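Why does residue order matter? Because the sequence determines the fold. Keep that principle in mind as you read this record.
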Amino acid sequence: MLDFAVNVQGSGPPDWLRERLAERLGELGRYPDAGEELAVREAVAARHGRRADEVLLLAGAAEGFAMLPRLGSKLAAVIHPSFTEPELALREAGVPVARVVLETPYTLNSVVVQPNTSGVGAGASHGAMQAVAGGVPEGADLVVVGNPTNPTSVLHARESLLALRRPGRVVVVDEAFADAVVGETESLAGVGLSDVLVLRSLTKTWALAGLRCGYFLGDPELLARLNHGRAHWALGTLQLEAIAATCSAEAVAESQRMAESIAAHREAMIPRLRGLGIEVHEPARGPFLLIRVPDAELLRKKLADQGIAVRRGDTFPGLESGFLRLAVRPAAEVDRLVDAIAEVGL
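Structure:
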């Protein structure tokens, strides 16, 4: 099927990355050593301006979500609409979860802000702001938010994210799609704060869904809590190679060129969809778009009959029926989608 449902860019990694991975196949008969693991953490740290002890390598972002219960939260708040795996991991571990559902336009800017009188600053440039209520319980000691958020494609301002901080609270920012944003604006990956964890994935931009690669960035004490009880050699040789390769200066530059291409395709795609009478949510800064149609389930099934897959939206908390998510694709693929919708009707 023509895939507008999954946000992976392309059918597989670029040729140069395939070649680097292939060169390591002869080494699969031995375990990776600690020196190699450290070298990869140093590569990630250099990419984000951090220290190596602020990096925890992961077998995909999914492993990072599964680790969240190890933080020992008494009450976690998950900001929706968003990816549901973090909430699932917390609930299955018995952690109480409060759903914080944002209303249209799904931005944190609607959260009331007042001067910070608690004495807890967010750094020299952000210490004057503190979020109040806005649905996040004051007693929540863990807050999880996506940026840019799946499925709304909203990119939250850095100040709004930092305003979620509280004494005794950890803020986890899921930046799985941050490298698909031009300039990686609003990212907290390079901000070293003791109560902020940033989760990165290599799955989408580099088409590595079958290899499972990612990492946490954060305070060493928090990373140690996440890593406690983990199996030895959690990442294999090819995963380590992929992470190191995609953190090189050349790879980062390539990912930004890809982000610019995604942005151009997104801007061209929006008016094409609106020309069909489809409601497209903006602002949109991710590699996908949230749309609303009169009967989303019927349209999804009709498109499937035409060989086109789109992502249902009603499985995301806070989105009722009528929503679909579309991956941003090049013009030729959008042409097929538009023609199919025009043929089957809304």
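Confidence is low (pLDDT under 50) at residues 111-133.
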